[in-house]
């Protein structure tokens, strides 16, 4: 227990190189263990090279960090509420499995015909489009198109302020490499997209959560946290929040930006669900003019998760540095995927596809919400758009227990604590309405809930 706890604290950077560990007697008293148990644990850690013994002084974290392991960096959660568990189960599920907990649309809801047309057009392209490295900044024509799309949301950005990435996740990873050092503090919403937790742990940062409300982060808590913790970065969704489906209000947006300016805080605005909106919501990047806000997007949710293509929108001096970093980590851009995305977005069918998709999601949202309420599962709010319902299970029911039972019936669910840094969402669950329409989902949930009441 002692060795595992110290390894986890070192991996999570709450114990940094050179930090002094508690004395043997002090730690034994705190943990209510024998001193021999603590001595044995310290000796094991010294043998591993994780800590150093200094005679007459005590034990210290080694300056040479041990090999990093994500499994050690986070809290020791039950696998049913571990974000890697949800991701792996969703990604590895068979075609017959049901995935109400996954974060993407069924293939039949995506524009397969448009993708096929784009592939046929691309097959007739000249040699460089099919075989050459792409520019690190990304395909100019696609960046021009993205620039126009940004303008429709009130974000003024020239094509030179846009860099393509392989995905929204890669965009955030590059930004973390660019902006953060190990041990830096990063602010996230609680709850938030669970892969934010995993990615930030991979960068060995200190993660701090702020409660999320139907109109954005709790501004009073936000103000207190930024004053106390002085985070380097805040990562959030503005338009359609994952997992809650909430929408940032203009008042909250202005207060957050004012605090960001006061405390020198940079914001990454993850906007990969923007095309699901019926009416554009406030964007931090639009209010801020890309001074402190970096805007990212992706086409994985609306076009294809197989054609990986995302983008970063930032001020010019940051784009230059990010481009160098992209060369260092992936050399060129994914030209083939960018050419395909450009073809599909340019053929005139994408807007019609999205209009149909928005109406289809709205119908699914209404239907799924009603059926969940009949089971005693209550939506936290009724989202204005998107695919996610953040719900509370009946009192006394642990979402992780339900998720484990559902997996036995080949149903992948997303229990709330995977999204919550504070582990305060024990009876919450995120449902993807596009993946929750099969009657078997409700039959299984009904049976599992009845057995736990």
Automatic annotation (TrEMBL):
Keywords: Aminotransferase, DNA-binding, Pyridoxal phosphate, Transcription, Transcription regulation, Transferase. The keyword Thylakoid does not apply. SUPFAM superfamilies: PLP-dependent transferases, Winged helix' DNA-binding domain. Transmembrane segments: none annotated. Residues 1-64 form the HTH gntR-type domain. Pfam families: Aminotran_1_2, GntR. Gene3D superfamilies: Aspartate Aminotransferase, domain 1, Type I PLP-dependent aspartate aminotransferase-like (Major domain), Winged helix-like DNA-binding domain superfamily/Winged helix DNA-binding domain. InterPro entries: Aminotransferase_I/II_large (IPR004839), HTH_trans_reg/aminotransferase (IPR051446), PyrdxlP-dep_Trfase (IPR015424), PyrdxlP-dep_Trfase_major (IPR015421), PyrdxlP-dep_Trfase_small (IPR015422), Tscrpt_reg_HTH_GntR (IPR000524), WH-like_DNA-bd_sf (IPR036388), WH_DNA-bd_sf (IPR036390). GO terms for molecular function: DNA binding; DNA-binding transcription factor activity; pyridoxal phosphate binding; transaminase activity. In the C-terminal section; belongs to the class-I pyridoxal-phosphate-dependent aminotransferase family. This is PLP-dependent aminotransferase family protein. It comes from Rhizobium sophorae.
